[in-house]
Amino acid sequence: MAGATLSAPHHDHGAARGFFYAVAMWQVMVVAMMTPTVLPWITAFARLSTPGPVTTAVAWSAGPTLAFTGGYFIVWLGYSVAAAALQTMAQQAGGMVGDRMTPSLAGFVLIASGVSQFLPFKQACLSHCRNPLTYFLANWRHGPIGGFRMGIVHGAYCLGCCWLVMMSGFALGVMNLAWMAVLTVVLCLEQLAPGGAWLGRAFGAGLAVWGLSLLL
Fold first, then answer.
1. Which of 36, 40, 147, 152 is deepest in the core (most CB within 10 A)?
2. Residue at 169 is within a domain
3. What is the count of structural domains for the chain?
4. What is the C-alpha separation between 122 and 116, in angstroms, rounded?
């Protein structure tokens, strides 16, 4: 009994450390993948926050810009916590082998990720992400608090645009650097390139076919 009593806190602490490590891992992945797509938004926000003409980066209004960036990544921190919780539950239920899901679960995840690329909700979020100036001009709020609130709103749209596609990491391996690079390129082209929406749909079709192949 004494041994069991003494080992329980150690087990709890180990589980807590593992969970926080998973959260940190997901957040690092999110920051690495989403920074290229949010940079145009940060740049546009910084320029609009500056009272006069911007000639150098030093002239940008740092406070509201940092608040906008912080609001954006706080939304994605919430996603990292949810993804880490899902990862922990899947590991405990035997749904993961190492750092990736079993083939059957991976198939369902890839299909869901692919189908999400065609949903109207996804397209609405993508339209928002492709037009920063339209959003800022219609919803501008001054100061750091305003910047933080706009960052949260944009982060929510960005989350709606990308969260299911990023879940494909469960199928290919959490922190699979090659797959992270592929997703980063696809998300950047989808949000920044002409015809990016069609590229995103083509990528989604490929994911769905891949998922079906795993199930069949």
1. 147
2. yes
3. 1
4. 7
Q: DSSP states of 70-124 as a string?
A: HHHHHHHHHHHHHHHHHHHHHHHTT-EETTEE-HHHHHHHHHHHHHHTTSHHHHH
- Residue-number span of the structural domain to which 208 is assigned: 19-48+59-215
Q: Which residues contact 117 (CB under 8 A, 6 or more apart)?
A: 165, 200, 201, 203, 204, 205, 207
Residues 147 and 141 sit within 8 Å (Cβ to Cβ): yes
Q: Evaluate whether residue 9 is within a structural domain.
A: no
Backbone angles phi, psi at 78, to 5 degrees: -60, -40
Q: Is the pTM of this model over 0.85?
A: no
The Cα 141–Cα 51 span in angstroms is: 14
Task: Give CA–CA dist 116/102, Å, rounded.
Answer: 21
| Tokens 């690092």, located at residue | 28
Q: What is the phi-psi region of residue 143: left when phi exceeds 0, alpha when psi lies from -120 to 50, beta otherwise?
A: left
Span 166-204, pLDDT tens digits = 999 888 888 788 999 999 999 999 998 998 999 999 999
CB count within 10 Å of CB 134 equals: 11
Question: What tokens does 197 get?
Answer: 């929406």
Q: Tell me the C-alpha distance between 131 and 79, whole Å.
A: 23
